[in-house]
Amino acid sequence: MKRVVLSGLMLMSFFFGAGNLIYPPLAGLNAGSEFLSVTTGFTLTAVVIPFLTILAVALSGDSALSLAGRVGKLYGLVFTVIIILSIGPLFGIPRVANVSLEIGVKPLLDSSGLGGNDSISLAGLLYIFFFFLMAFVLALYGEQLVDSIGKYLSPALVIFTMALVLVYAFSSSPKEVGQVHEEYVSGAFFKGAFDGYGTLDAIAAVAFAGLIVNALRPSPDTPAKVVFSGVVKAGFIACVLLAVIYFGLAYVGNVSAVSGKSTGADILVYASEESFGAAGQLVFAIIVFLACITTAVGLLKTLSTYSRNLFGLFSEKSWLIIYTLFSAVLSVQGLNSVLKTSVPMIYLTYPITIALVLVTLLNKWTKDRAWVYFWVALLVTPVAFADAFRIFSANYFNGSIDLLGGLRDYIPLANTDFSWVTPLVLALVIGFLFPKKPVNNFLLGDVDAEARRKKQEAEEKYGEVL
After folding, report:
1. CATH number of the structural domain spanning residue 293
2. Chain centre to alpha carbon of residue 205
3. What is the dihedral of CA 208, 202, 20, 15, to 10 degrees?
């Protein structure tokens, strides 16, 4: 049980990174009187979906490839590479490093006169070097990862964060719930759900699940059902802690309209100063650093292990060095550049991940209709790609290019950024109601055989669970 608790704490700290810290208070601020609807939507995509993703990956194997491989080998490989790049060197790891610098350390540097006027000063560069050196060392000693993260860094993160929330909540600081932001007036639940996308937890869960599975498998002979039971408990511990922290941070933002702040980081700095006085900025910097370093460690460790198993070529240590150096170089480009890249990838990866997770968890009913995976891939992927390209073109070209064109006007929920839901429902209906057809093509591979093989493996391992 001790191992399960430590694994749950480790998983929580891996999830609780940059976006998890700054998005909840901003969502709470914008929610106004729609606080409950917004936080419910946020919890769905930032807590519930990641938890279900962990279960789906554990049931299908221990990796993104085992999850998406139910569609076909090539599809699974492409999906895995996109996930690795998204949560890894392209923006996942550089984002946590930049956030810890921009909102945690830079205010301290500025107050001491070391901040400089450039995007990243010499002191900032030294911090980036220190951040990635520490992340590399912690990730390198993977055998002690559960103990070092679970015993020390995770509890420290929870204690500091909840101390901030509770002290601020019961302080005499003026509190005021502001007006509902115009974007939240209609469809507050969906807006909160989309805010939860920014945490990246659903796609990160695809990677972290394998780490938890291996941490709870002390030997190759450990029964799969025992491992899965441990994964369920560890995931539940992590997600309950996250839900409590998110609610607290959202509350801080919700009652901070009087501060006049407009970003999640500014709200938390204000709350820290109001709660702890002159030491508030330092307390906030500690919270940010703990949140970001634990996430960076988890991502580096997971991705280096994945890459060794998936591609071979290099040792795990070599992959770790590659990802660390590449992420550090991109981090120097600054936070705005990183965020510009991240949004289109979120639009692409989240719908596909959620769709695959849902179908995998419906394994008990889909095992005789393997081609449902084909329909999910066929209908959801193009819509997700169109949404991603629309945002990408708006960010990098002179105008937004919508590949769906006028068709978007006829897709339910398209105006809430959930245009992929209707294709998913349609794919499930086709897959469940119509007779099974063999599917074999150059892009997806032998979908029927591949999905059937994955299901057979899952049934042999988990039987009663499924």
Report:
1. 1.20.1740.10
2. 6
3. -10
User: What size, in residues, is the chain?
Assistant: 466
By CB atoms closer than 10 A (0-12, 13-18, 19+), residue 48 is middle
Cα(419)–Cα(190) distance, integer angstroms:
12
271: its two tokens: 């709350």
Query: What's the rounded Cα separation, in Å, for the pair 93 and 86?
Result: 9
177-193 burial, b if ≥16 CB within 10 A, otherwise e? bbebbeebeebbbbbbb
In a domain, 374, yes or no: no
H/E/C letters for each residue in 350-369? HHHHHHHHHHHHCHHHHCCC
Domain assignment present for residue 461? The answer is: no
Q: What is the pTM of this model?
A: 0.82
The domain containing residue 221 runs over which residues? 1-341
Cα 330 from Cα 286, distance rounded (Å): 23
Instruction: Give the largest Cα separation in the chain, rounded.
Output: 70
What distance in Å separates the CA atoms of residue 198 and residue 349, rounded to the nearest whole number?
A: 12
- Looking at the domain assignment, is residue 385 inside a domain? no
The secondary structure of residue 38, as a DSSP letter, is H
Q: Are 234 and 57 in contact (CB under 8 A)?
A: no
How many CB atoms sit inside 10 A of residue 404's CB? 17
Q: Is residue 463 part of a domain?
A: no
Instruction: Render pLDDT for 145-168 as a digit per residue (tens, 0 to 9).
Output: 555 665 677 777 788 888 888 888
Q: Residues 260, 263, 265, 271: is their CA dihedral positive or negative? A: positive
Give yes or no for a contact between 457 and 466, defined as CB atoms under 8 angstroms apart: no
Which tokens belong to 310? Answer: 């998936």
Amino acid letter, 264: G
Q: How many domains does the chain have?
A: 1
3-state SS, residue 256: strand
Instruction: Tell me how far CA of residue 335 lies from CA of 106, 330, 346, in angstroms.
Output: 12, 10, 16
Q: Quick: pLDDT tens for 56-111.
A: 888 777 677 777 887 888 888 888 888 888 888 888 899 888 888 877 787 777 66
Q: Is-contact 267 256, C-beta < 8 A?
A: yes
